[in-house]
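Hello,

Our lab assistant flagged a job as stuck in the queue for most of the afternoon. It eventually completed. Since we weren't sure the result was trustworthy after the delay, we are filing this so someone can double-check. Below is the sequence as submitted and the structure that was eventually returned. Let us know if re-running is recommended.
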Amino acid sequence: MSKGIEKQYPISEENLDKANYLQSLLNEAMRLKLLSTEEIEGLRIQLAQMLAMETSSYTQGDSSSLKVETAQEIMMSIIYTLDFYLKSLPNTDECLASLKSMKIMEIYAKGKELIKTAFEQAKKLYELVGKNKISTDNYAYNDTIEALSGFFKDYNPMFAAHDSKVSIDYPLCIDNMDTCGVEYIVTYLKKLYYENEFCRRFPDESIGYLLNGYSNDNKQLLVNIFELILANSLGSALLKRSPKDLKTDKDDCIYLQTYLSSMAPDDYELAIIQASDKIIYELEISNEFLLKYIPQAVKYLSIRIKGLLELNKLSTFFIELKEKIDEADYRFEDGVSMDDELFRKVTENIRDCSKVSHKLEIIWKEVRSFRDLVDVLGADCIFGDEYDEVFSSFNDLELAMLLSEIPSDKFYKDISSNPEDYDLHMSESEKEWQTRLKAFVERLEDVHKEKIIQLRENLHGYFS
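-- returned structure --
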């Protein structure tokens, strides 16, 4: 059916809020006089009865002990469940008909069944994501996939259906974030699965080089990998190359800056569409989801390209692949230490983080001095195995500089088994990071380990 002859409903979906569907539906129905005052009042009474019943179930009959905040959470869960059913209906006329003909309890029961089905769908999607995830050291990507397993343990569809209770850091390329609870988890996992499917069409090595080219700190950054790959693939398609080739260089960017800038707006749009089609064709994309998702993402990228063309900055859009991160890169400055108050706040914030990726975000954002970094490591705000992840984020030079903090007379001893080798003034936390750093370096491959130790020796000679 063409758009021109689609049936028009009194209440347009576009006027409804997906996150507050029932409320916005009732507001529209009242505004358009599609529900009478008596019908609205009847729904309010039924909702109050529904809340009383659910709170009684939650407290096992002792509703007097219920906190106001808990009652509000239960009400949000009820509304979410009602929304879940109403949003499953084909149009707003059907929604109004249901509200007129069905008891709230009936709608609630149907919503619960749909949530149960969605939960099972999310479980299947999570299994698929576990199988098709890409190989990357990006913390947000890996931590988010791991954290999502907690959703299936902690989700409470009975009294907190609206709350997914999971920390999702890894950003999707397209994420409207206008839903919550299991509805959002299903959407997120579905998009992540298909983004992975696209990324897996490229070699792991190329993806790694692309991330290295994007930033030396790519492990710590909240960056969407699908988007980076799609952008360079788009660049290759525009250059009349295979979109499977992610390589671009400065000359390519100069050419594209000139080529795209000279186009009339319609020609530019056509070139982008043709490049998008070429990506789909040459990568043999046949999945219905990706056939829609890729053009949507390309459209978003084309807006950014347009803006950069106007600024003559297209070279910042396409990423030059980089085999290795430049080891000479050193991310700390000398002599710019935090004052005591700021240091206390920073270490408190790090200590409060439950995830290492969040701790690293604070370290890379707030710690500019190497001296401060050493003090942070010994400030009792990083614990146990977290040290390994923190050390993994440092390059070889930074690891060598940290190793140089350990005096030579102790560096070659097994200080983990000889605590008396520590200086008496060192805190337990300071002893721990030094012990764990030595153990971390010991576990590296011999060539890598020797390189870091040699760097340490060079530094020692330089500073002595």
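-- support follow-up --
The delay was a queue issue, not a problem with the job. The result is valid. The two ends are 80 Å apart (CA to CA). The chain has a mean pLDDT of 87.
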